[in-house]
């Protein structure tokens, strides 16, 4: 997928500053004109072309125009530079950005461009040097500059590792083990039997993928995603891809109905149904069984794909689907089904979620209504592709891209309040607070004694009841626990006892947390981490972000046990 257009945090070798002569204002209609002047910019471009061996592609907007042509450089930088050389009588070898390593300038491509943008295109002789030229799309403004020069930040792109129907993958020369995935402005259906250019789709797809992968990472899912790079690309760990599409379905529709005659559309699967399809365009991606995957005896990045690995991918597919399904519900959207792919990280040798998850990857029905579908199915269903039809499809994609950002927002706030009978229990309470932080739950610590100051205890309770934020109270009291029962008898909020038991009297003290009078419903959990998890499970009923972390934790626990079992079996052979 190959074109970044924002900050990568990578700096090039120090470039020689332009001479005063080079920084004089140019009057030629240079697309980069403005600020310091065209000469400095051309000097920078030429120096970059000479400084890096290999094929250097400088993309002003990072796009390839969606029609397979190199965008940006040839028409906007090299042509003006060549014209200047010819005008000066320079008949030497033509300026060319050819060779071995692709180069992307992603901040201020040249001195002065940032200065022009910072001034809003006004002021100085350069503003009147010629006709105004729009700043090429996708070039973000450098974050800081001292004079009219910006510090260029570059990333060196190596060979193309893969090109698919909607993306390209490039190696990163300065970042071994990482790759750049670049989306295309192309939409396809039926294994590319139908394909069209759709302006802006690359940015939409990249935005959706970046948001979804971040959401899953926060939930604890291992993903091949490092950071978003501009509008249409992101950096990811390099993976050897496992050629299986994993499909997870909640509702029967689409190809499932064709392959399973008699099943009515709308049939719901509990749990979600997982299917496997071998990636083989020539044979229309045939459905495979888990046994076929195992029989293939694949090895990727040194990892043999056997029963354990297939089980991990199957369970991960279900967990990922459930997390995203839960995340879309607050937006009143039903995630019907989705497809994902896994790869083996070449560095860690772990199976990770890879490729992309964008609007091509799922069926999404607002209000659970198929007629309102916002996914790629609206493109598949077009009897004839027309400009109007493509605009309708694009509006659907934009609708999803706008709402996918909302998946990161908390719909229902929550809070844990830990009440300790004495500061001597602070260490125990700090463990609860830390565990709450792992679920993204705010936690407050208070000191109060239900035995020595019951009025103050009830005053604290009323304080938290009055602001309307859903709260779980955790009572931490050793010896005779009065906090938990008093709180439980005077609030409708959940109360959890988490007594800090000691070896000497712990066996006796615990009964003050276990045997409650009638009418009290506080639970007792001895582990600080367990108390935080129980609170998270309560909040997770209405907070999809907390629920996602719980679900991700369940998956990781299952995977670690599965891997431990495999290791033990291998050692005993």
From TrEMBL:
One of its GO terms (cellular component) is cytosol. Its EC number is 4.1.1.21, 6.3.2.6. Keywords: ATP-binding, Decarboxylase, Ligase, Lyase, Multifunctional enzyme, Nucleotide-binding, Purine biosynthesis. It comes from the Eukaryota. Residues 414-561 form the PurE domain. Pathway: Purine metabolism; IMP biosynthesis via de novo pathway; 5-amino-1-(5-phospho-D-ribosyl)imidazole-4-carboxamide from 5-amino-1-(5-phospho-D-ribosyl)imidazole-4-carboxylate: step 1/2; Purine metabolism; IMP biosynthesis via de novo pathway; 5-amino-1-(5-phospho-D-ribosyl)imidazole-4-carboxylate from 5-amino-1-(5-phospho-D-ribosyl)imidazole (carboxylase route): step 1/1. It catalyses: 5-amino-1-(5-phospho-D-ribosyl)imidazole-4-carboxylate + L-aspartate + ATP = (2S)-2-[5-amino-1-(5-phospho-beta-D-ribosyl)imidazole-4-carboxamido]succinate + ADP + phosphate + 2 H(+); 5-amino-1-(5-phospho-D-ribosyl)imidazole-4-carboxylate + H(+) = 5-amino-1-(5-phospho-beta-D-ribosyl)imidazole + CO2. InterPro entries: PurE_classII, PurE_dom, SAICAR_synt/ADE2_N, SAICAR_synthetase, SAICAR_synthetase_CS. CDD domains: SAICAR_synt_Ade5 (cd01416). It holds the Pfam family SAICAR_synt. PROSITE patterns: SAICAR_SYNTHETASE_1, SAICAR_SYNTHETASE_2. Residues 1-37 are annotated as: Disordered. GO terms for biological process: 'de novo' IMP biosynthetic process. The keyword Endoplasmic reticulum does not apply. The keyword Ligase applies. GO terms for molecular function: ATP binding; phosphoribosylaminoimidazole carboxylase activity; phosphoribosylaminoimidazolesuccinocarboxamide synthase activity. In the N-terminal section; belongs to the SAICAR synthetase family. Bifunctional phosphoribosylaminoimidazole carboxylase and phosphoribosylaminoimidazole succinocarboxamide synthetase catalyzing two reactions of the de novo purine biosynthetic pathway. Homooctamer. This is Bifunctional phosphoribosylaminoimidazole carboxylase/phosphoribosylaminoimidazole succinocarboxamide synthetase. It comes from Sarcophilus harrisii (Tasmanian devil). The gene is PAICS.
């Amino acid at each position: 997928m190959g074109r970044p257009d924002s900050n990568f945090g990578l700096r090039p070798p120090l470039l020689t500053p332009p001479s005063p002569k080079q920084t004089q204002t140019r009057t030629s209609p240079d697309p980069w004109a403005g600020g310091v002047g065209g000469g400095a910019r051309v000097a920078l471009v030429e120096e970059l072309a000479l400084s890096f061996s290999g094929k250097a592609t400088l993309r002003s907007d990072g796009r390839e125009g969606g029609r397979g042509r190199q965008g940006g450089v040839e028409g906007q930088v090299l042509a003006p530079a060549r014209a200047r050389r010819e005008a000066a009588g320079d008949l030497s070898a033509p300026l060319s950005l050819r060779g071995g390593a692709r180069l992307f300038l992603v901040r201020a491509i040249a001195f002065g461009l940032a200065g022009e943008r910072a001034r809003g295109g006004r002021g100085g002789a350069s503003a009147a040097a010629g006709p105004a030229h729009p700043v090429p799309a996708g070039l973000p403004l450098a974050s800081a500059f001292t004079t009219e020069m910006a510090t260029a930040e570059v990333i060196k792109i190596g060979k193309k590792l893969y090109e698919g129907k909607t993306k390209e993958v490039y190696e990163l020369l300065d970042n071994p083990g990482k790759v750049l995935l670049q989306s295309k402005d192309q939409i396809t259906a039926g294994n590319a039997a139908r394909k069209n250019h759709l302006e802006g789709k690359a940015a939409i797809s990249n935005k959706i993928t970046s948001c979804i992968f971040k959401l899953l990472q926060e939930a604890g899912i291992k993903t091949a995603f490092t950071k978003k790079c501009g509008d249409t690309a992101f950096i990811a760990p390099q993976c050897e891809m496992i050629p299986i599409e994993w499909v997870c379905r909640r509702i029967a529709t689409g190809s499932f109905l064709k392959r399973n005659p008699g099943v009515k559309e709308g049939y719901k699967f509990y749990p979600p149904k997982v299917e496997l399809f071998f990636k083989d365009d020539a044979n229309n991606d045939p459905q495979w069984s888990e046994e076929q995957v195992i029989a293939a005896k694949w090895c990727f990045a040194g990892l043999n794909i056997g029963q354990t690995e297939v089980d991990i991918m199957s369970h991960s597919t279900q967990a990922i689907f459930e997390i995203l399904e839960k995340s879309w519900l607050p937006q009143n959207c039903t995630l019907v089904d989705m497809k994902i792919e896994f790869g083996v990280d070449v560095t860690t040798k772990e199976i990770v979620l890879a490729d992309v998850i964008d609007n091509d990857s799922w069926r999404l029905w607002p209000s659970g209504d198929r007629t309102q579908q916002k996914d790629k199915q609206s493109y598949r269903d077009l009897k004839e592709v027309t400009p109007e039809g493509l605009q309708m499809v694009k509006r659907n994609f934009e609708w999803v891209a706008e709402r996918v950002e909302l998946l990161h927002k908390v719909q229902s706030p929550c809070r844990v309040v830990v009440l300790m009978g004495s500061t001597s229990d602070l260490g125990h309470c700090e463990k609860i607070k830390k565990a709450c932080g792992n679920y993204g739950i705010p936690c407050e610590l208070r000191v109060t004694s239900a035995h020595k100051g019951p009025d103050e205890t009830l005053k604290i309770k009323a304080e938290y009841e009055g602001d309307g934020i859903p709260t779980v109270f955790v009572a931490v009291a050793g010896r005779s626990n009065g906090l938990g029962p008093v709180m439980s008898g005077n609030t409708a909020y959940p109360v959890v006892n988490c007594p800090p038991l000691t070896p000497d009297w712990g066996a006796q003290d615990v009964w003050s947390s276990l045997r409650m009078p009638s009418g009290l419903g506080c639970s007792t959990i001895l582990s600080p981490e367990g108390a935080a998890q129980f609170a998270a499970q309560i909040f997770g009923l209405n907070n999809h972000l907390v629920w996602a972390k719980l679900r991700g934790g369940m998956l990781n626990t299952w995977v670690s046990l599965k891997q431990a079992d495999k290791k033990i079996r291998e050692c005993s052979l």
